[in-house]
Amino acid sequence: MSYENSKQIFQAAQSLMPGGVNSPARAFGSVGGTPLVIDRGEGAYIYDVDGNRLIDYIQSWGPMILGHKHPAVMTAIEQALTKGFSFGAPTEGENELAELIIDAVASVEKVRLVNSGTEATMSAIRLARGFTGRDIIVKFAGNYHGHVDSLLVAAGSSAATLAVPNSPGVTAGTSKDTLILTYNDCQGVRDAFASHGDRIAGVIFEPVVGNMGCVIPDSEFLQTLRECTTASGSLLIFDEVMTGFRVAYGGAQQIWGITPDLTTLGKIVGGGMPIGAYGGRVDIMDHVLPAGKVFQAGTLSGNPIACAAGSATLRELRDHSPYQRLETLSQKLATGLQEAADAAKQVCCVQRVGSMMTLFFNSGPVRCWEDASASDTESFGRYFWGLIDKGVYMPCSQYEALFVSAAHSEDDIQATLDAATTVLADL
Ligand code: KE4
Question: What Å distances lie between residue 156 and 131, 150, 185, 365, 401, CA to CA?
Fold first, then answer.
């Protein structure tokens, strides 16, 4: 496959945007080589500027669960465009998307629409602090919640839970109120609440992790988070930006049977257009300005075109549920990838929830960041490029999840497994 046009366009991008990209995840930093410049998408496929067709398992990092250019979403966007693009005033389409979210996610009684997952998580932790009057936010190593200053932190020294900035520009003052714990470590959660419980405003975590690769919470871990937050008067925040409408129509909270106090959403909820959302108990949400005093605002929040795309996507998922078919296709892919790795005597484990999964170059099980970070990322890079050359577009990092869409066919899954079998055998 030729990538010459991608190389030329990406080279030109270097002098225009930092690293030639508008988000670092796209820069192929951990797999090397030049990112493919994408020209268009159709269903389960993307086409790069060199005319190569690839089976797309990134899907814009999750939003395109229906596949690219789904007719119902296209029609909804086209119809919305005839009325204008943005008004900065209430529109009925915002009511419609809010109602779809509230009807879908049991714990969400009221919702605020924003423009990204980052805005959703940033706002949710501000709300948790405003509602409780407390300062500390607990997060977990290996969980990503967007580029929120206070969550761009790494485990610090001393108690191993004190956070320190892990990006220039994030101040010690910003990170001092963040505690970092280990995912799936129940005793660590109990110890943190024993030491700081009356100062903890909230706990935010990924109820299925996508951002260290797909890592699954133990049921005891979920129960411990719910019990400790309830007992201490802290808020439990499910960051469902990735899992919302992905692992189930009602998100991870539907499959785990745990009720959070706040939920953050993004990706699928906008159908590929820039939308995030945060919502939860009405007594909490009514603290948000102008109902309450916790400030949060946005020029393009609830944008009519984005709401049309999001509502059309959620209606399609609600009325023509793809989840059983996604489960069947995803199980076949996960089983086949594991079998191919085993046949090639590669030390790998596949971890999956619904239509999100990761092939770790790791003996597994991967239960936390310490486990994940021991993966063989060099082998992953060769696996990634081997699949690119065979027309399969996997997430460009060991620490991401791949996504199966409703547009993927049995043939696409089989073609992917055929390619992976060869690539893994030749690694
Ligand atoms: P955005 O601000 O990128 O819309 O959402 C941030 C976010 C929040 N919470 C979770 C659980 C997320 O996964 C994300 C964003 N996910 C990454 C990919 N793992 C987005 C890709 C990128 O940064 O370009």
Answer: 27, 13, 17, 25, 27
